[in-house]
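Protocol step 4 of 5: obtain the predicted structure for the target chain.
Materials: sequence only (see below). No template structures provided, no constraints applied. The aim of this step is simply to have a reference model before the mutagenesis design in step 5. Sequence pasted as it appears in the construct record:
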Amino acid sequence: MGKRQRAQGQTGRQGPQAWTPENSADILLVTADGYLQDEARRIVAAAGGTLHLAEGMEEAMHGWDTADVVLVGSDVRELPPRRRAPAVLLGRAAEGDALWQLAAALGAERVAVLPGAASWLAEHLSLSFAPDPGGTVLGIVGGHGGAGATTTAIWLAQAAAGLGTSTLLIDGDPWGGGVELAITDQDLPGLRWPDFTATRGSIDPNQFRESLPVAGGFTFLSWPGVRDAVPPPDTASVAAVMDAARRGFELVVVDVGRSLEALRSFAWDCDKMFLLTMPLLKAAVAASRTLNELPPGDTALLVRGGTAPSVDAHVIAESLGLPLAGTVPALRGVAGATELGRLLDMGHRRPVTRFAEALLDVDGAHP
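Step 4 output (structure tokens):
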């Protein structure tokens, strides 16, 4: 799979790193908004890049395809024909949800809400032309409640680790109870999401990898399975974790939650998304609504097997306009194994390994 080279901004505990790329990147900004222009000048200078400003599309056409990175302001409403999508849409906090709607319409890979995302954008630009963009990030999102996204993500991470791929499973759903409770009944040492709530600076990928718990051959980052309220990390902290994950592992599997906050925090970082649904009419309708909230990009459909009465999986895929990637096997006892922290035992069964290895092989997500 071709990676969308958009290494994320970093936050960590060691303080900001002074790192300037050997080769300055040519960055094109298309906007007539003076505030965004001024912010971009400062940010690009911090990133060590060279900014080229175009206030209109006619001017932008000359440098669009030769620029290393294309940024557009929220005053841009349409792109020039036959040009690649912009890497980042720049906007202001007051614009709210309209920024993400515009980003989806333009096909932008990321959204930077200024001035809050200034430090993230500077590091994003620094890393976007680095020689190694890092590993592959796959996202699993349930099209509706109870689709089985967490189970599928766990089995996929387990299978990838079994194939010798360094793998990280990220729990992206703070309301899901924590993937940890499904994969182990032990208190494993390592950091959880609350430990990254207030991180700032840069996260070293090696230290990040070594600080996390391991089960089933793969590393995982989970929300703790506790009843106490856990404050979620802000967007800068999530971006830092995702960047360290991409640089520290060959494969990152994200169990993406269905809330708008989770989709904006994690789905936009994925190279490929798998939308999971049950083969039922109501479930397919719900999945279509979830699909509308996903960022533009490479998305395929997974259908959970063993449900009757059912709608044919190919019919669902055709109605959603998505390629059918596979059918998640239905096994008796999954719910009980999840409750006991024994879901990894189910992952060793042949139907699961066949499904997961086939999905990884088609996706090119393991060596």
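Step 4 remarks: The mean pLDDT is 85. The two ends are 11 Å apart (CA to CA).
Proceed to step 5.
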